[in-house]
Amino acid sequence: MERARLVPLAIAAAVVLALALGPQFLRPSSLYLVSLWAVTAIAAMGLNLTLGYAGQISMAQGAFVGIGAYATAILMQQGVPFPAAFVAAGAICFGVGWLLGYPALRVQHHYLAFVTLAFTTLVYLLLRNEQWLTNGVYGISGIQRPVLFGVSFAKSADYYYFCLGMLAIFLGAMWWMIRSPWGRAFMVLRENPVRAMSLGVDTRRYTLLAFAIGSSIGGFAGGLFAPLVQFLEPGSFSLGYSLSLLLMVIVGGSGYLLGPLVGAMVAVLLPEFLRFTQGYYLLLYAAAVMILMTFCPQGLIGMAERIAAALRRRRTTATTGTH
Amino acid sequence: MSGFIQLVVSGLATGAIYALVAVGFALLWQTSQTINFAQGEFVMVPAFFVLVAMKVWGLGYLPSIAIGLVVSALLLGAAFKGLVVEPMLRHGVLPLVISTVALAILMKESVKDFYSSQAQQFPPIVEGTDIEFLGAVVSTQSIAIFFVALGAVALLNWFLSSTLTGRAMQATAQNRAVARILGVDVDRMILYTFLINGLLTALASFLISPIYLAKFTNGETLGLAAFVAAIVGGFNHVRGAVLGGLILGVLDNLAASYVSAQYRAAVPLIVLVVVILFRPQGLLGRVEERSV
Asked: Is residue B286 part of a domain?
C-alpha cells in the first residue's frame, strides 16, 4: 500500500524538479513549447470541469481561449495593465459561458455539441470579420509580456516560470473545487441529474455555473496565451482548436484532475519528440485516439489506473499464494 | 427577380445534395445511435476513390464511379460499422463522438498526405449548358443534380416503405427489441443502414465535387451542413432531412447575396441554434417519435 502511494509521489517530484530546472538545459524553442503546454493544459482543465466533472459536452473551449486572448491583447493595447486585462478576460468568458449554458438547460448530448459547435464557428467569424476591433485576418501583433510588481516577465525563461506558476495555481484551485460542495454538485449532475434534483441540488444553477467556470478558465488561458505567442490571428481559434482541446481532455482522461495535463502533453509536447514521423503525426495521433477510445475510453490516466490495479492484484495473489 | 430565381435554383441543387448527406446521417442515428462527426469527410473522400481509379488506373468515368460506390459502401459502410462503431457502442455516446472526430482528422490527413493537398478537378455528371427559365439563366447541371439527388432519396423512400427488407429496417429503427422478437435480423438491418449511408455520401460526393472541386478540407462545411439540415428538418424523418437540406441550400445562397458574404456561414448556424432552442424535434419531427 505504501509503495502504491510512493510511486506517484516520486514521479510528481521528479516532474516538478525537471520543470524547475528547465531553463538550465532547454533550448528557447523548447521553453516556448513547455509554456504553451502549461497554457493549453489550463484551457483543457476548464473543459474538464464542464465535460469531465459536470458531464456537459462543449465544443467551444477553443472559442473561449480566443475571446480571452483577444480581450487581453486589445485591453493591453489600450494601456490597461496585464493583471486587470487578465481578470477581465476571465470575467468576460464567465459571462459568455453562463449565457452559452442556457441551451444546455434545454438540450443534451449531441444537440448541445452542435450548439457549442455553432457558437465556436460564430466566434471565429466575428474575430475574422470585425476588423475595427480585432484587425481581422491581419491579426494583432506586438503583444507585450506582463510586468508585475516591477518584475518583468519579458524573457522567455521568466514567462516560462510565470505560466508554470499559473498552472500550479489553477491546478490547486481545481483540486479544491472538486472537493468542495460545488464539485460534488457538478459530479452528481453528471452521474444522475434526476437524483441531483431530488436531493435539492439546483441543477439549473449548477449547469450554468459548470459552463461559466469552465469557460472562464478557458478565458484565463487565453489571457496567458496572448503574451506568450505575442501575435493573435483568428485562424488559431477555429473549430479545429476546440475539437483538439476536446480530444486532449478525453485522451488524458476526462474527470481526472491530471487528465488535461497528460492530454495537453500528448497534443503539444509529443509532436516535438516524434519529429521523425514528419507530416504523419496528426494521422498517427488520430488513429491512436480511435484505438484508445475502443479499448479504454477512460483515457490514458484511466489506463494507467487500470494497469496499476492489475499489478497490485497480481502482487496480492502472489503473496497470498506463498502463504 | 431573375437573379433571385437563379439563386433559388442553384440553392435547391446544393440543397438536394445536403439532403442526401442529412438523410444518411439521420438513418445512422435512428438505427444505431451513431452521431457521425466524420459525415462531412464521408462526402469528401469518395471523390478521391474515383480520382484514383481514373488517374492512377486509367479507367473511364462510369467504371470509376462504380468502383467509387462499391469501395465507399465497403469502407465507409461495412468497415466503419465493424471497426469503429460496433466495438464502441457499449461505451456510450461520447467515446463514439470522439472517435468519429478522430476519424475525420484521419481521413483528412490521409487524403492530404497520400493524394494531394491541392483542389482537384472532378468530372460533372452532365456537361453544363445554360438554359432560360422564367427569364433567368439556369445551368442544366444544377437541374441534373437536383433530380439525381431527389431521385435517389425517392428510391430510398420507396425501398424503406414498400419492400420487406425496408420495412424490417424501419422496425429496427423504431424498436430494436420488438423487431428482434418478430424475427427481424436486426444486425443485418443495421449493416444495411451503414451500407446505404456509404452509398448516399458517395453519391453526394460525385454530385458536389464538380462544383466545389475535390479537396481534403471539403468535409468541414459539408458535415456542418448535414448536421444543420438533419436537425432543422427533424432528426427522425427522411422527409424532414430532405426539407432541411433544401431549406439550407436556398438559405445559404440567398444569405450570401442579400445579407453578407462574410457572414454567409453564420446564417445556417443561427437557424440551427434557434431551431434547437425552440423546436428541438425539428420542423417536421414529433417529440419522442422514431420512424424512418
From this structure: no
Q: Give domain status of residue B81, yes or no.
A: yes
Note whether residue B132 is domain-resident. yes
Domain borders along chain A are: 31-238
Task: For chain B, say whether A106 makes contact (Cβ under 8 Å).
Answer: yes
Q: What's the CA dihedral at A118, A124, A127, A130 to 10 degrees?
A: -60
Q: CA-CA distance, B93 to A111, in Å (whole number)?
A: 12
Provide CB contacts within 8 A for B279, sequence distance 6+: none
Q: Do B277 and A282 touch (CB under 8 A)?
A: no
Strand partners, A151: A148
- Using CB atoms, pick whichever of A107, A121, A297 lies closest to residue B280: A107
For B214, phi then psi, to 5°, come to: -85, 120
HSE-CB of B154 using CA atoms within 13 angstroms: 6
pLDDT given for residue B63 in this prediction: 94
C-alpha span between A22 and A128 (Å, rounded): 37
- The answer to the question of residue B292 being in a domain is no
pLDDT in tens, A106-128: 776 677 888 898 899 999 999 99
Radius of gyration of chain B (CA): 19
> What is the complex's ipTM, to 2 decimals?
0.88
Q: How far apart are CA B74 and CA A166, in angstroms?
A: 50
For chain B, the maximum distance between any two Cα atoms, rounded to a whole number of angstroms, is 58
Looking at per-residue confidence, does A224 or A210 come out higher? A224
- A-interface mutation test, from B25, B34, B100, B106, most A Cβ less than 10 A away: B106
**Cβ–Cβ under 8 Å, residues A207 and A104:** yes
| Number of structural domains found in chain B | 1
Give me the domain span that covers residue B181.
2-278
> Which residues 6-35 in chain B show a CB within 8 A of chain A?
35
Q: What's the pLDDT score for residue B291?
A: 38
Tens digits of residue pLDDT in B217-256:
989 888 888 888 988 887 777 888 899 999 999 998 888 8
Give DSSP secondary structure letters for chain B: -HHHHHHHHHHHHHHHHHHHHHHHHHHHHHHH----TTHHHHHHTHHHHHHIIIIIS---HHHHHHHHHHHHIIIIIIIIIIIIIGGGGGG-HHHHHHHHHHHHHHHHHHHHHHT-SS-B----SS---EEEETTEEEEHHHHHHHHHHHHHHHHHHHHHHHSHHHHHHHHHHH-HHHHHHTT--HHHHHHHHHHHHHHHHHHHHHHHHHHH-B-TTHHHHHHHHHHHHHHHH-TT-HHHHHHHHHHHHHHHHHIIIII-STTTTHHHHHHHHHHHHH-TT-SS--TT----
CATH code of B130's domain: 1.10.3470
Joined together, the cell numbers standing for residue A322 give: 506463498
B46-79 residue pLDDT tens: 999 999 999 999 999 999 999 999 999 999 999 9
Asked if residues B207 and B148 have their Cβ atoms less than 8 Å apart, the reply is yes
